Amino acid sequence: MKINRSIAPSLKDEIEFKLPEIKSLSLSNGLRVLFIERNFLPLIKMQLITSCGSIYDPEGKNGLANLFSMMIDEGADEFNSLELSEEFDMLGSSFTISCNHDNVFLSIQTLTENLERSLELLSKVILKPHFDLHDFKREQNKVKVMLMQQHDDAEILADLAFSHLIHARGAYANSVLGYEDSVDQIIVNDVIDFFKNFFAPENSHLVISGNISETVLIDLLEKYLHEWNNRKKNTAVNIKRVFQPRSIYILNKENSVQTEIRIGHQAEKRNSLDYFPKTIMNMILGGQFVSRINLNLREAKGFTYGASSNFTHYKNLSEFCTAVSVATDNSLAAVNEIILELNKIKEGVTLKELLFAKDSLIRRFPLQFESNSQIITNLSALAIHELPINYFNEYLNNIKQVNQEDVKNAAIKNLKLDELSILLVGNQREIAKQLSKSQHERINYINFRGEIIG
Amino acid sequence: MNILNIKYEKYTLSNGLEIILHQNKNLPITAVNVWYKVGSAFEKRGKTGLAHLFEHMMFQGSQHAPKEMHFRYIQEAGGTLNGSTNFDRTNYYEKIPSNFLELALWLESDRMGFLLPALNQEKLKNQKDVVLNERLERYDNQPYGLAWEKILAALFPPEHPYSWPTIGSIEDIKSYTIEDVTNFFKKHYSPSNAALVVAGDFEFSTCKNLIENYFGSITSNGKPQELKCQSPVLSNTVVINHDEDVKLERIYLAWHSTNAFSSNDAVFDIIADILCGSKNSRLHKKLVFEKEIAQDVSAMQISGKFGGIFLIAATLKPGKSFDAIKEEIFKEINKLQVEGVSTKELLKSKNGIKANFINSLQQIDNLADHLNSYNYYLSEPNSFLYDLNRYEVIDNDFLMQTSKIYLSKSFVELRINPTKKISK
Fold first, then answer.
1. Which chain B residue shows the shortest CA-CA distance from A89?
2. In Å, how far are A403, B367, B394 from A358, measured between CA atoms?
3. Do B354 and A11 touch (CB under 8 A)?
């Protein structure tokens, strides 16, 4: 067969992809379960998502939710901390815990043959954690040292300061790890109270993917989790939408050879009405390698290894952020190019760009259900954002319906140029020198908590 | 275990390109994975980082698929793609919905056969800038980001090709010319120096025809001369002190270990796991959990075709001393050499390694890369069981013997000192 290399091969046939069935179940204690059965390999992954992240930290005790998440596996029932870890390790099962603003996640990855023992261990963690004082002191100290280390890393500093700037005094402004003074204020009884008040089946979801049948799974879950009957305490959380005037900020990081740039603002929570146009708009703007921002800053200007923009969706709010790190000399030029792109996309996108983004999302769909980890991510999104159970069944149709006008409107509505916080983290003197020659607003000098210091 | 018996078909095109096909129709997804048998070890001093820069140039367009189009086509098809460079090899990979297999083969064949006509000064300058920024972002501006470079330079003699990092030095990156890039391509990017894996959902006859059509006519430049280098020896222990703008001291200890897939290679993975791989591992338990003199501690075996490095690193808690940490580390090494480990510890490591191994097979692109890796290092793509068995057979005697032979030798000790001391 003679081939013509000059044109891209044409598509011959469509693939058949059957979305795996998502089961929505609940246990006798009210715990909601989302499950996909998958039998290619003898593996199971599960994640318990509890809505008790750092936005529930009490005033003055920032870092409590995170410390709770670090403490919950420090010994349970008959096992001390090391013994408990050893029990999981002997199975080859991995048990990990993490905490973000909204949730605490307990995740298990195991061979099918070890599922039951893994669940038994998980039930000990959930029902009978020790919260021993000695373990608490050690973990508290570990966090304090982590907080110290954060100041070494320009990327982390930029992310922390940016959250403070755009969320002002709201719950999403605060660092998940807390601060040295706030972590000092936490005592072991705070952790125990937090566990009693927030760690409950009614504000949790369990998502599972892997090699097990529904009936066997439910029997096992009932057997090991039915005793979990904590009740959640009602607490008000400060999550109101705040509007910050457009401003420019510098956070000094001496000896930096690069400037970490963050440009963006607080935005609305994930909303079913314009989620799809907004996603497509961001894909074209900065959500993929061939996006406008990356092609401009990386492939045309050579300013950076990579530049991107994103909407990060929390449960109650979101943030829009463009992030890039550039050599100090290019700080101002990079800021200007990003703002130019933000302005430009409000004029709309071309039909070619739209079709490209839609094709990419539609065709990528099957690839997002390949591994248990990917499925867990998808199921977690359903749980966290309270999406309808048929969300993935409707996903392709929702993408297909988006037109150019929708994308333009999504840009106009969701990109708020008069609310931009423009943050540069790096060599203050050099950055200020560049900015002073530009038309930008007055410079505010801040610390990593977003407080103006000069 | 049956799931680790990965069936494949292997053959060679007339131009020398090795082809490995593995069919798996679980999902309508296909992975294309090309290994070129060249990495930073094949560079010369003065031009370090060229293999990695070259990887970037492979995404800058070829004769029939201009700049950016490789990314554009694959992303439009809903696929994912990237490439990576290490000491020994450079790989390029796409994962696509299976109806786009031909597209991926067209793109990979175009840059294998027709890169040079599309190469120009402007693209080179742009990617030199991008790579310089990559170096700044991932090394120079990272806390402790220069440690690796310093360890390599001290552990290996300057003529050994592992004595510089894959990213290369700033001066070298700035120095590349079009001629450097062209010669590199001609020397190393011949089909006869590469292997192509297609894994996932495809039909054998169609796939073979496509491969023959797209790759069969690319001319071979022969094979580059085989790289030979002597096993490196460190005659005396080297201590390096480096000042950096960080808050906490960190210590790195590095020994020469063994080449990838040589008999002791897997033992070092197990040793690393027993020392630092879990909460209850020996060094973690001692330094982080009980004595609380370290914030973190890690160990790893990094091995390639021409050498291996066994590395232990620990970050000190504020106010703690290097000597205290070092003493504990050597106490534990000595214990390994004299007493060995318990049956339970060994079993724990093996169970973890086995579970992780099975877990890594879930994604077809991972599996494709494994096939290429085994083909490169072991000349047998289906070495999954063999690989896992390397760990299964390790017993306490073997572990003690390995730690005695290798961890009694001279080593490199790198101490990172904060430029500003914290007042306590």
1. B348
2. 10, 29, 52
3. no
Task: Give the count of beta carbons closer than 10 Å to the beta carbon of residue A80.
Answer: 15
The mean pLDDT values, 10 residues at a time, for chain B of 424 residues are 91 98 97 98 96 96 94 96 98 97 98 97 95 94 96 96 97 97 96 98 97 97 89 94 96 98 96 97 98 98 97 98 98 98 97 95 97 98 97 97 98 95 52
User: How many CB atoms are closer than 10 A to CB B47?
Assistant: 19
Chain A residues 230-249 within an 8 A CB cutoff of chain B:
none
Who among B130, B213, B359 is closest to A305 (CB)?
B130
pLDDT per residue as tens digits for the range A92-147: 999 999 999 999 999 999 999 999 999 999 999 999 999 999 999 999 999 999 99
Q: Tell me if A290 and B362 make a contact (CB, 8 A cut-off).
A: no
Tokens 């715990």 locate to A31
Q: CA–CA separation, B196 vs B94, rounded Å?
A: 12
Surface of A (137-156) touching B: CB under 8 A: 138, 141-142, 145-146, 148-149, 151-154
The shortest CB-CB distance from A3 to any of B28, B213, B364 is to: B213
- Other beta carbons less than 10 A from residue B380's beta carbon: 12
What's the Cα-to-Cα distance from B396 to each of A154, B135, B159, rounded to whole Å? 45, 42, 36
**Neighbouring C-alpha atoms within 13 Å toward the C-beta of B138:** 17
Structure tokens at B314: 């620990």
β B9-12/B18-23 pair status: antiparallel
Task: Measure the CA–CA gap between B256 and B234, rounded to whole angstroms.
Answer: 8
CB contact under 8 A, A302 and B355: no
Distance (Å, rounded) from C-alpha A84 to C-alpha A118?
Answer: 11
Q: Is A92's CB within 8 Å of B114's CB?
A: no
The model's pTM is 0.96
Mind telling me how many Å the CA of B127 is from chain A's nearest CA?
A: 7
Q: How many Å apart are CA A192 and CA A206, to the nearest integer? A: 22
CB atoms within 10 A of CB B175: 16
